[in-house]
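HUMAN: Spend a minute on the protein record below and explain its fold to me.
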Amino acid sequence: MTTETMTPANSTLSTNWLVRFGNWLKQHRSNFRDLIVDAVAQVRIYQKAYAGIMHAFIFWGVTIQVIGTAINLMQMKLFTPFELTTFPRNMAYLWYELIMDFAGVFILLGVGMAALRRFIWKPKSLDTQWDDIYALIILTLIPLAGFTTEAFRLIANPVEWSNWSPFGNLWANILMAVGVNPVVATNLHDAFFWVHVGLGLTFAATIPFTKLRHLVLAPLNVFFHPRKKAGELTKIENIEEAEILGVGTIDQFASTQLLMFETCVRCGRCEEACPATSSGMPYSPKTLIQTLRSAMTQTLVYGNGNGHRELIGEVLSEDFPWYCTTCGACLKKCPTFVNPIDEIIDLRRYQVLTTGNVQKSVSDVMRNLERQGNPWGMPAEDRVAWAEGLNIRELAPGEETDVLLFLGCAFAYDDRNKKVAQSFVHILQKAGVDFATLGVDETCCGETARRMGHEYLFQVFAQQNIETLSKVKFNRIVTQCPHCFNTLKNEYPQFGGNYKVQHYTEFLTELNLPWEKVSPIGKTELKKVAYHDSCYLGRYNDIYTQPRQLLSKAKVNTVELARRYENSFCCGGGGGQMWLETDAETRINHRRLEEVIDAQANCVATACPYCLNMFDDAIRSKGLGETIQVMDIAEIIDQRM
């Protein structure tokens, strides 16, 4: 026998390996956190109580049964390197028997709940395929075969601790009552044991070919899904050198996206939350992912070449990607982090930048952005016309201010939102805030271009604005538009634009405004105000409390909508939908307005120019201008201060 001496070289190698491993763990802390929270504890699944409890029964029942069966097989010396000579019949063994019994019952309870949900109380978004039925059958047969095997064992060899296997013992009593004696039980025990083992092996063998694969793939997707900010889209690196922009065929998707397609189990939660789907549009995030999965399977698994077809026009209709509002509801609801929005943007990028095959309204917006630097197509020099007479300082290169007001296109060019911008300026001036704008040097932040697929134009705008911002000094950027806010805060850092960015509702809650001077009666009678959570302010940036705090300080009588906070229903204006026509059965903004009517509110409060316009359009379309109005929070505060 020789003893290896730890040399300095070996010590250094070991230390370096430990350092590298420690660094890897630090870099992947969020991966492991998500794995524990969402793959093991499965917190997201409990967003729906019934489905969550159902899944918990099955998941933990199967997990315990697998661990317990492995222990039992080692005792039987089937795995020689890990064999246990005997399983001692002590208290630990009795608890083992009890836990295994309950685990089997948990599986059966979960399967029963699943069957009721799938065949009796079936949600509209839940479809049933052969592997759904197979999963229910195999998960029913395995514990039944196990209980039957245990019952025959207890009949053939009665033991004094049989009550520690309560369900197996109950089944044994039932079988004895119908005439099964120890001799019969002895003969059937081994047969049912191997049936039980065979069913377990069948279960394991069919995992890759059925929806059971999510047992393996879901934790992998939870661990490997891209870590980025909720409101951040993936940057195309070296865009000027790229031969293909976006995704045109299935093999052009990233490996993490292909893994995501396989992870989807068609639970339908994304479809239930999707505003486009519920409004009757020919779009569904579940359909998108499942269609892409089918194309992937045809190409990468069976290799018959069908998946190499053009995704747009052959696999999906040309209009399909353009119904998505990028509201993020689907992503928030998915238990395994499947993200359809990334695929939508990839498909739009391909249409806009590679093929150029887009509807006229899309090309019109892009032309306006390219020529005038705003989606309205208004002259660039008119960007400051809204501020006439307000005495607002415009920063010149080298000058500085505390607050840089990044206005955004909607407040500069849209007549309705110009009034909102003026109200916010009134508040800042009354509070004595040191603020300024970029004036005509400001251009579009690029959000509309990026969400509509023109990544190149977005990068041009981003770099142009970052260059302009580098020439002035400020402590923070404040913007009224959640879309500008999200872009400046979460996406400009991709290009080196790192700033302290605040939405105006955040800024005003921190500001020491003279709230004691606020009058409960403004110029407009507001009997009951319903605040609408903007998708890009709420779901993407977790700003929920500040707008409500401002309404409370403004002494407004508020009421909550049925869908609020992260469950808020989109206004229908995001993802470029402000500029697109729709042939939906019911417009998304009309559906949201119906919730306002149900809440018996006479005013909708918003903190987003798109939301304000979409509500204004819905109110006028329904002829409700005399009974319901829409106002920005800044307008409400300005009127009452």
Notes: The chain has 26 helices and eight strands. Residues 91-119 form the longest helix (29 residues). The radius of gyration is 31 Å.
